[in-house]
Every structure is written in structure tokens, then in C-alpha cells.
Amino acid sequence: MTGPPFYEYRHVVGFEETNLVGNVYYVNYLRWQGRCRELFLRDEAPELIADIRAGLRLLTVRCECDYLAETTAFDEISVRMRLGDLTQTRIGFAFDYVKGRDELVARGYQRVACLRGPDEDVRPCRVPEPLRAALTRYAVPPNRSDSASILPLG
Fold this sequence. Notes:
By secondary structure, the protein is an alpha+beta fold. The protein has one domain: Roll (Thiol Ester Dehydrase, Chain A). The protein has three helices and six strands; from the N terminus they run βααβββββα. Strands 1, 2, 3, 4, 5 and 6 form a six-stranded antiparallel beta sheet that branches. The chain starts with 6 loop residues before the first strand and ends in an 18-residue tail after the last helix.
């Protein structure tokens, strides 16, 4: 697959992630999105971890996945994350799930809101600058014609 750079999380499917038929149970794709995002924070914006411990919240407000082909135990899946869109307080992540070298087996999208405050008064806040800087390295250029593997941002 060609296109803009992506952050990649590589995963080997285990039996515990499959159903009775033997294919991957759908909710695991959403778990892999979360894991990819967490590892991205660890690897690309580690200074944000202290901010999260101090009260920054990254709340998932939308999550979806389109399944294109089945996967089974021991398949090697690359979860490739790109920045889909970025506003002052929200982030859109686009995910491609690739089996082997280039078989696209699923596409996902996740929208995250940045919040701060005590439980009784949580309010939107700006995307922290270290996270914004890390994310822009993985942005889909706005005029790209080959970004068809990224979900529309509607």
C-alpha cells in the first residue's frame, strides 16, 4: 500500500480473539484501534502521559469499523493509523487493517475529544501541542487523490 505515512501496530491474532466459527470476533478490531492509539501516545508523545495522569482525558466519542475480509488465529495484522482530521478540541483517527503484506481486511475510524476538569465539571480543551505535533506527522494531505483507503470524515 502506498500513501501518506502511518503509525503501525503489529498484532498476531490469538485463539481467544476468535469465535466458534474460527474468525476474529468483531469487537477485537475496535480493541486493536485502542491499543494502536495507546502505543502511539507512548512512542510519539510520551510527555503526554504525565498530562493524562494530571487530568487530561481523551474520550472516544465515535468508533466504527468496516469489515472487508475474515481473519483467523495466527494471522498477522498491521493496524495502520493516520490522522484523519484535527480540530481545536477533537481528533479523528483513520485505521487500515492489513493482513500479510497488503491485503486490506478492515477500515476503522475513531473520533476523540480532549477534556479537562473534575468529574462534575469536565469541559472540552485544546488538543495539547505535543500531541498535535506528533499527529501532524501522520496526516493525510488534503489534496491527495490516493487516500481512498482512509474513511471519509463525515
